[in-house]
Amino acid sequence: RMLTDIREVFEQDDQISSKVLIERLTKIEEAPWGDLKGKPIDERGLALRLRQYSIRSSVLWFGSRQARGYRRTDFHDAWE
Predict the structure, then answer these.
(1) Confidence (pLDDT) at 38
(2) pTM of the full predicted structure?
(3) Residue 58 has pLDDT above 90, yes or no
(4) Is residue 24 within 8 Å of residue 78, measured between CB atoms?
(5) Cα–Cα distance between 43 and 79 in angstroms, integer?
(6) Averaged over 8-13, what is the pLDDT?
(7) What distance in Å separates the CA atoms of residue 1 and residue 59, rounded to the nearest whole number?
(8) What CA dihedral angle connects 16, 66, 48 and 38, to 10 degrees?
(9) Across residues 41-65, what is the average pLDDT?
(10) How far apart (Å, rounded) are the C-alpha atoms in residues 28 and 26?
(11) 59, 5 in Cβ contact below 8 A?
(12) What is the CA radius of gyration of the chain?
């Protein structure tokens, strides 16, 4: 479910910060990401769930600032 939802919220972006990815995931009404054991998913929870697919965040540039995030290419194998 998470991989499908991430594909949906990635939209046309080539990369996305962990923070923005979580914000978009928690806005999906039918998805569980806004209420996992009473709390929304956080960056650590996201990283733990993606690690099983060998997907890890990295430090990326977003304009003039750096943040941890993911590239679309990080997900290609898992989406296939």
Answers:
(1) 82
(2) 0.90
(3) yes
(4) no
(5) 20
(6) 90
(7) 25
(8) -80
(9) 95
(10) 5
(11) no
(12) 12
